[in-house]
Backbone:
């Protein structure tokens, strides 16, 4: 598949009846960003940012000791995940874009499970 990026060309106007619509490189429609190059990077980045904002707002709930892990995961599935995946039925993802979505999902789930991100370093053998 060939992707066209940074194309510097004049967008053609569309005329319907007596109305003229200006040609644009991208626009928002029903909460999704539509581009002339069918690029999803901007839309995925906005979706990731919105998801992280939502999880930050829910941080007191998701990190609460009073709620069970099962309840927190149900909150995640009903409130946070739909924000991340809104409009994904129409997306054609590359591996890089899919990885970005998975990283965001794991970041929120780490908040729920209260697990820290660990880096395992190989110990030098004696």
Residues:
């Amino acid at each position: 598949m060939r992707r066209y990026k940074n194309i510097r060309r004049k967008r053609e106007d569309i005329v319907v009846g007596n109305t003229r619509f200006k040609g644009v490189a991208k626009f928002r429609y029903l909460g999704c960003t539509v581009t002339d190059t069918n690029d999803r990077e901007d839309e995925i980045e906005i979706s990731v940012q919105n998801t992280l904002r939502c999880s930050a707002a829910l941080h007191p709930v998701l990190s609460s000791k009073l709620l069970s892990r099962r309840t927190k995961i149900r909150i995640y599935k009903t409130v946070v995940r739909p924000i991340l995946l809104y409009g994904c039925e129409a997306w054609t993802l590359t591996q890089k874009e899919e990885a970005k979505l998975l990283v965001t999902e794991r970041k929120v789930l780490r908040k729920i499970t209260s697990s820290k991100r660990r880096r395992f370093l190989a110990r030098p053998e004696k």
User: Anything to note?
Assistant: Residues 38-112 form one domain. The first helix runs from residue 41 to 57.
